[in-house]
Amino acid sequence: MNKLKPVLVLFLFLILAVACSKKEEKSPSYHKGEMTILTDESFKSVTEALAEGYMISYPDTKIKVMAKKEDLGFIDLLNDKARIAVMSKELSPEEIKLYEKQVDLKYLPAKFAADAVVFFVPKNSVKTSITMEEITAGLQSDDKNFVFDGTNSSNLNFVAQKLKKEPRDLKFSIIPGSINVIEELNKYPNKIGVIGLNTISRPYDKEMEKLREMIKILPVTTNGKSYYPNTDGLREMKYPFTRVLYFLTNEGNFNIANGFIRYSCTQLGQMIVEKEGLQPYNIYRREVQMR
């Protein structure tokens, strides 16, 4: 009988070890695993930069960034087809209620960057600025002089929301894809392109430099003052079409999605946002004068 005791103890120890290892495997982990982030094309660049930074910090993670129209990405998030989505439009009370019901989480948008919707013309255009009145009237005109990158896009949703309209109530033209809008707008000299700033914002990116050289960004005039979608215009939210980018997740524990969100909102993630040419939401440049 005494000889059986060590064997029994060893057997019980092995059972406990296996049970603990299984429990450990199932426990949440922010530093390993795979995840897909859904993002509108307009802010795909900054999302990819943050994903690359996270994977460098946590080599056992693999993050795929998938471009999807904002409204469709939100629906996929609700239906548990993705763990995280990047958003820009303010959700309606009905959408917030649906989110909280479907996901069973409190609506807590994780804001991480200030972006903008920009209006532009080809480089050789004589037009140098645009007023809020022109934008409002133009989007009600049958001429359809404003060219967006698609229906259900974040740019269209945001402009409609800013004008207190539904996207279906606006009149506009479409060239699918933000880069295509830039490259093809010179074929339509009387049109005005509408894209997201992040499409062209990265300062030292060669491809973005080429795109910037093709266009003239129009300052928006409101109440007699003109504002550019630059650092000052975004930081103070003075540029009328400044928008705040934020993450939504359906992940209730501290797994890879929430780990990524925390990373993006910390100083390291915010430095990546700044390198993208956008305004960090959680940190601001401080100037100290020495006397």
Automatic annotation (TrEMBL):
Domain PBP positions: 33-264
InterPro entries, A to Z: PBP_domain, Phosphate_ABC_transporter
Pfam families, sorted: PBP_like_2
Highest taxon, organism lineage: Bacteria
Residue ranges of the TM segments: none
PROSITE patterns hit by this protein: PROKAR_LIPOPROTEIN (PS51257)
Keywords: Signal
Protein name: Phosphate ABC transporter substrate-binding protein
